[in-house]
């Protein structure tokens, strides 16, 4: 139930949904003055949320500081990779298809090859409403094996469907297999606040390695400052999703 509720919230908290709602109100209102008000509001909302500079500034306040791999001085027993829409399986062509946030995959392989982590714990079931049997963690495990990581060094949680369950299931695996070890939590920068709080709530003490940053050096180019950009809308959707998710998790007692 919570899983479906989170998907509904994700739709309702999207700036595109707000703009669409304003346009629909304008369409069905009879008074011309009221129509203009809703249309003007829709335009203002669109211009604000499609501004790349504004979106990046708000996201920059949410994302944690960047950490270089060279700054990781601990030899970690386990790297915990939290899934979430990274891969899917193309049944027609019998191949893995990469989607979003694949830095989690590449950076984890890099850390393993550098000898900074001994084992990898992949956490992720299906985050899709349509394909509930398409489990992300086993797909990622097969990709890691193809890239030279031994099967015995890869642990899998394929039953979790959200961040709270990621933390719960990983805690069970770690407490059973390697309690009190040195753990490194790897997820996207925008997702790290909620993820790290969930793991702390489950008693898992770990260092954090945020990847997949949305922000970098400030871009003062005129196009970035003034011209609408659809990527800004996407960034806002991700930010609002994470902030609202953090609040909902706090209310639910997951943090």
What does this structure look like?
- By secondary structure, the chain is an alpha/beta fold.
- It has two domains: 2-63 and 224-252, no CATH class; 71-211, Rossmann fold, CATH 3.40.50.620.
- The protein is 51% helix and 15% strand.
- It is built from ten helices and seven strands.
- The strands form two sheets. A five-stranded parallel β-sheet has the order 5-4-1-6-7, sandwiched between helices. The chain has a two-stranded antiparallel ribbon with strand order 2-3.
Main pleated sheet: 5 strands, parallel
Q: Kindly, what is the distance between the CA atoms of the first and last residues, rounded to a whole number of angstroms?
A: 19 Å
CATH architecture of the largest domain: 3-Layer(aba) Sandwich
Number of helices: 10
Spatial strand order of the main sheet: 5-4-1-6-7
| Helical fraction | 40-55%
Please tell me what the overall shape is. elongated
List how many beta strands DSSP finds: 7
Strand/helix succession = HHHHEEEHEHEHEHEHH
User: What is the name of the CATH superfamily of the largest domain?
Assistant: HUPs
Structural category is alpha/beta
- Supply Rg: 20 Å
Count of discrete domains:
2
Q: What is the average of the pLDDT values?
A: 90
Low-pLDDT residue intervals, each spanning 5 or more residues:
none
Strand content: 5-15%
CATH topology heading of the largest domain: Rossmann fold
Any idea of the CATH class of the largest domain? Alpha Beta
